[in-house]
Amino acid sequence: MSAHAIETATPAPQKVRVPLNGINTPGLFATIDVVKGQPQLGAFQFRATGNWMGGTHTQTTMSEFSGAGGEHSHKMAFTADADHPAVLCGQDNGPTPVECVLHALAACLTAGIANIAAARGVTLHSVQSSLEGDIDLRGILGLSNEVRNGFSGIHVGFAIKGDAPEAKLKEIVQQACARSAVLDIVSNGVAVSVETNT
Amino acid sequence: MSAHAIETATPAPQKVRVPLNGINTPGLFATIDVVKGQPQLGAFQFRATGNWMGGTHTQTTMSEFSGAGGEHSHKMAFTADADHPAVLCGQDNGPTPVECVLHALAACLTAGIANIAAARGVTLHSVQSSLEGDIDLRGILGLSNEVRNGFSGIHVGFAIKGDAPEAKLKEIVQQACARSAVLDIVSNGVAVSVETNT
User: B190 and A43: CB-CB below 8 Å?
Assistant: First the structure.
C-alpha cells in the first residue's frame, strides 16, 4: 500500500440509521450500545397486580417497572380484564386468560419484526398475525391426569407486506422469533413461585 | 344391623351446591359431568388476531373460539394493546407483551381460586395478586447468547380473605395452581409453530 493511499484512505462508511416503521432506530441502537457497555442496565423487572372482581373475572393493573438502573412508570396505569366465557360458566367480561397469552405472543413477535425490519432498513406496510391455541379442558376440569392443563400447541401465522423480497421478510420473522421474550417464555417455560398470605 | 335400621336408612345426603363467589357452582359441576360423559366436548381452540399499529404497537382482537362441539363468540370482540415503553424506544401505547403474560397468569389463577372455593363451599371476600417477572434484556437485545430472552423467574404473591381457616385458603390456591392452564403453559412450555406468508 502506497503512502498516498494511506493518506487518502477514508474510514469505512458509517451505516446511517434512520427512523423507520415508526421505530426510533438510532435510539434503539444507542440503547443497545449503552447496555453493551453497562450490562447491569439490562436487568428489568416487570410487574402486575391482579384484583378479583367476582366470579371468574379479574382485572389487572400494569403500571410500574424497574430497569436501566431505575424505576419507571408507564405513561398511564394500564388495566386489562379477563374472564371465562358463558360456555365455561363465566360472565364473559373479558378474553380468557389463555387468549391473553396469545395476545402477548402476537405483540412480542410483531414488535420484534418492526424493530428488526427497521434495523435492516426494510420498510413494512403491514404485519398481521393469526394465532390458534388448542386445549383439552379435561385437564383444568380435573377429569384427566394424562391431559395437560395448558395448550397442547400454538400455531402462529404471519401475513407480512414490506419493501423487501419474500426471503428477507421471512428472515426478519425468523430473527424476531429467535429474540422474542414471550416466545421463549411460552416455548421453554419459566420457574414460577407462588406465595399465599391471608 | 336391624331390619328397622335398614328400613329407615336414608341415602347419604347429596351435597347441595349453590352459587357462591359469583360462580354458578351447579352449572360448573353440570359442565364437568357433561365433559366427563363426552370427553370430545373438552377440545377447545382459542384464537387471537394481531394487527401491527406502527412502531412496536400491536392491537390484538379476541372474538371467536371453538369448543364443546361448536363455534362460539365472546359477547363482544375484545381488543388489547401492547407496546414497548419509552425507555425501550417504544411509544408506550399499552403494557409490554411480558406484562400481558403476567396478566394472563394472575387472571387464570384467580379464576381457579374462585371456582375451587365455590366448589368447596368457601365464601371469598377478596383475592389480590402481585406478580413480578425478572428479565435481563441482554437476551432480546442480542447482546448475549447465554442470557435467555424471557423471564428468568416469576413470583406470584396472593393476599386472600375468606370464610375459611388459613390452611384451607392455602389449599385452594394450591389446587388452583395444580389446575391452571396458564401456569402450565408458562411453567412447562408449549410447542409453537410459526408460518410466514407475504
Answer: no
- Here the ipTM equals 0.93
Chain B stretch 43-62, residues whose beta carbon is closer than 8 A to a beta carbon of chain A: 43-52, 54-58, 60, 62
For residue B184, the one-letter residue type is: D
The CB-based long-range contact list for A72-75 (8 Å cut-off, 24+ gap) reads A72/B85, A72/B87, A74/B85, A74/B92, A74/B95, A75/B86, A75/B92
User: Residue A188: CB partners within 8 Å, gap ≥ 6?
Assistant: B148, B150, B189
pLDDT at A2 (0 to 100):
43
Give the count of beta carbons closer than 10 Å to the beta carbon of residue B75: 11
Whether B24 and chain A come into contact, CB under 8 Å, resolves to yes
* pLDDT, tens digit (0-9, with 9 covering 90-100), for B101-151: 999 999 999 999 999 999 999 999 999 999 999 999 999 999 999 999 999
Contact A14, A104 (CB under 8 A): no
The predicted model gives A36-48 an average pLDDT of: 97
